[in-house]
Amino acid sequence: MKNILITGGAGFIGSHLVRHFVGKYPDYRIVNLDALTYAGNLENLRDVETAPNYTFEKGDILDAALLARLFEKYRFEGVIHLAAESHVDRSITDPLAFVRTNVLGTVTLLHAAKTAWTGQFEGKRFYHVSTDEVYGSLGDEGFFTEETRYDPRSPYSASKASSDHFVRAYFHTYGLPVVLSNCSNNYGPNHFPEKLIPLVISNIRHEKPLPVYGDGLYTRDWLWVKDHASAIDAVFHRGRDGETYNIGGNNEWTNIALVEKLCDIMDELLGRPPGASRQLITFVKDRPGHDRRYAIDASKIREELGWLPSIRAEEGFRETARWYLDNEEWLLHVRSGAYQAYYDAQYGAH
Ligand code: NAD
Ligand code: DAU
């Protein structure tokens, strides 16, 4: 059995990735290391927690002694690193938390892998999952390519940019076999409701105001989260050492157009009169340093690895809205904080 460490596997993207790997690769043991911060939710993984090739380890990537013990215990052949502080608005109020986990945590993990693998880099892989936000902000035209100059503008993107630089430094300085990807905005089930799409869906459901920052003309390129998982699979198995792959949905929406689309889908699903939920849209104070537009040129991963997004926007948004309506309990537990008791209930006795 090949042991693979996934960090941040209890979060939004991490939980989809864990499910994808556990289901598709029965000959891998997937070890999910997660600190279970407010964003980590083991209820996301209820359906895989008893799989014979899945193990959960609660812990912090900043804990070097724990990492050394885990590398010793499992003899990992690969690491897929997603653990991070991920919300831009939180990074504006608490930048140091982002430096700790995203920068120091990533370097601690890199160092643990290098130490454990020294003299045996052959067949090993350290995969760092990053964001398109490191490239900064686009005007009306153009796309981010893998050659776009880094220009991070929020504490979150600055911390992710810094972590990317450290990953490349470990490749160039020590020869650690690394690969990176920089992805656009994900959406889908299990998305924490501080982020735009789940927040809007939940507020429509409960007829609360839908906060749109500034003029609402900020643009994001939205990718179905399960397509991100399949892209990570492709890069992990077939990407080239030292390379970076941009991942995107080729699916640009201004925030206001997206919120209107979600209103219309929800009205239809809830049997409300057409246009009803649009009345809830409320323009609010802008995010400081708000990046105007992100858009990914994903031709490298398409041409080198044959990866393409699988579903169309309309279908993905509808499926997401339906998931939130069908999983009110998940949302309720997140809102009440009850999901944080799940670990004790599930693992406390062990
Ligand atoms: P998330 O906030 O939903 O999940 C992060 C997970 O990391 C949580 O389970 C949390 O408990 C865990 N974690 C946080 N700090 C930790 C620590 N110190 N030690 C161990 N675990 C810790 O994030 P997400 O949206 O799933 O993003 C996952 C990764 O993908 C991040 O690295 C993020 O930068 C990147 N990314 C996200 C998006 C997106 O649209 N969400 C797009 C591109 C890249
Ligand atoms: O591009 C990839 C990034 O996408 C990831 O690296 C981040 O981890 C992820 O959080 C996401 O960042 P954004 O800042 O783009 O996502 P968010 O959902 O916070 O906001 C999307 C857009 O909607 C952005 O322009 C801000 C706006 N917005 C957001 C919220 C929460 C609003 O207008 N109102 C809101 O209430």
What CATH architecture label of the domain at 2-187 and 222-247 applies? 3-Layer(aba) Sandwich
Number of strands: 12
Report how far the terminal alpha carbons are from each other: 24 Å
Level of helix content? 40-55%
Spatial arrangement of strands, main beta sheet: 3-2-1-4-5-6-10
The CATH topology of the domain at 2-187 and 222-247 turns out to be: Rossmann fold
Low-confidence stretches are none
Task: Describe the overall structure.
The protein has 350 residues and is α/β, with parallel strands linked by helices. It has helices at residues 12-24, 64-74, 88-93, 95-117, 155-174, 196-205, 225-238, 255-270, 299-305, 313-326, 328-336, 342-347; strands at residues 2-7, 28-34, 54-58, 78-81, 125-131, 178-183, 185-187, 210-213, 219-224, 244-247, 252-254, 281-284. The chain has a domain at 2-187 and 222-247: Rossmann fold (3-Layer(aba) Sandwich), CATH 3.40.50.720. The protein contains twelve helices and twelve strands. Helix 5 links the parallel strand 5 (125-131) and strand 6. The chain is globular, with a radius of gyration of 20 Å. The chain starts with a strand and ends with a helix. The mean pLDDT is 96. The structure holds nicotinamide-adenine-dinucleotide and 2'deoxy-thymidine-5'-diphospho-alpha-D-glucose. Nicotinamide-adenine-dinucleotide binds next to helix 1, helix 4, strand 5 and strand 7.
